[in-house]
Specification:
The protein contains no helices and 5 strands. By secondary structure, the protein is mostly beta strands. The strands form 2 sheets. Strands 1-2-5 form a 3-stranded antiparallel beta sheet, with no helix packed on it. Strands 3-4 form a two-stranded antiparallel ribbon. A hairpin with a 2-residue loop joins strand 1 and strand 2. The radius of gyration is 16 Å and the shape is elongated. The mean pLDDT is 91.
């Protein structure tokens, strides 16, 4: 079956600092990511956060 797993990110750069807001699996879809020898591996749940990085 088909499935749509949505994610995204928005980043701001200022001088040598980059701040990123992100989300993965935004709709918190529960799905089977892989089948292996009868085992089912579910996809990861919704994750979101902020990353701050310094470039040099």
């Amino acid at each position: 079956t088909a499935r749509d797993v949505w994610g995204g990110q928005l980043a701001w750069a200022h001088d040598d600092i980059v701040t990123t807001l992100y989300v993965t699996n935004a709709s918190d879809l529960h799905y089977v990511a892989a089948l292996n020898s009868g085992l089912r591996f579910e996809g990861p749940p919704r994750q979101y956060g902020i990353r701050v990085a310094r470039t040099f």
